[in-house]
Amino acid sequence: MVTRRALLVCAALGPILARAKAAEAWPQRPVKIVVPFAAGGNTDGIARVIGQSLSESFATQLVIENKPGADGAIAAEAVKVAPADGYTLFMAALPQIAIFPAMTKVAYDPVKDFAAISNVGSNPFALIVHPSFPAHDLAELVAYVRSKPGEITYASGGTGSLGHLSMVLFAKRAGLEMTHVPYKGGGPAITDVIAGHVPMYFANLSEALPQAKGGTVRALAVSSEVRTRQLPDVPTVAESGFPGFRTVTWNGLMAPAATPKVIVDLLASAVAKAVKDQGVSEKLTGYGVDPVGDDPAHFASTIAIDVAMWSEAIKLAGVTLQ
User: Fold this and answer.
1) pLDDT tens across 45-96, in order?
2) For the domain 124-240, what is the CATH superfamily, name and number?
3) CB–CB of 77/100 below 8 Å?
4) Which architecture characterizes domain 27-122+249-317 according to CATH?
5) Angle between helices 261-276 and 42-58 (to 10 degrees)
6) For the chain, what are the domain ranges?
7) Percent of the chain with pLDDT over 90
8) Rounded to two decimals, what is the model's pTM?
9) For strand 62-66 and strand 31-35, is the pairing parallel, antiparallel, or unpaired?
10) What is the DSSP letter of 48?
């Protein structure tokens, strides 16, 4: 005899078992990776590199959908409300997860509304100066800026950008007073540093690499925990007298929060395998990216740390967006 309790248990387990069965058969059709920026940028390039590798791993097509606008919030909101079936993924960049939700009201919770899959790769920043700037290492820069409080300017790709907030954190640690000159993007910012109009800039490594190698700017330090393979002779900020200093951005795969764990784990394993492939690794390194390919738990931990750290930086900078 089937009891009422048994019927209730079956009713409760039904959707769970259905999702589990669907997850076992995943993928049966093309998978979409939503990119929060226009085609051709750093995040788009990373998505296409890892998407091609995942296509080969799962023998299915991974389609890149560029959905720019509102600093990436439009893409994040679209992924949040997508079916949690593994067929819509998000190539998230740190700003949509840890920066903009702390600066302005967004229609998503950066932690609760997404499942972390894998951090594909991270980009440190490089503190660059014009070649005429009278400092050849971080200690000399700090001494020079301290001797001229409030007189030295620095560029950024915009108020609240990662370059701006990285400099805010560094200035706080070093006890420096500088004047912020925001630009509409990293391109105009680094152009004016090269021209000598503004003496320094905390640039994304992918921006700084060709200029540092070409001698149009001088890299004094990088913001990662260890030196980068692209600029091995440039010390970290941490080893230059500021232990523990670390600011990096990242691009990682995420999915709607209720996506089955078996699919999340399959994707994470495939990303980890992909970034160990020499061809994929070389392509990512060419973007100034350090391949990571960690598991969901580690990626979720990185997100939690960054949400707290960048919220503090935003408070220090006094930045809000309407």
Assistant:
1) 899 999 999 999 999 999 999 998 887 899 999 999 999 999 999 999 999 9
2) Periplasmic binding protein-like II (3.40.190.10)
3) no
4) 3-Layer(aba) Sandwich (3.40)
5) 110
6) 27-122+249-317, 124-240
7) 73
8) 0.80
9) parallel
10) H
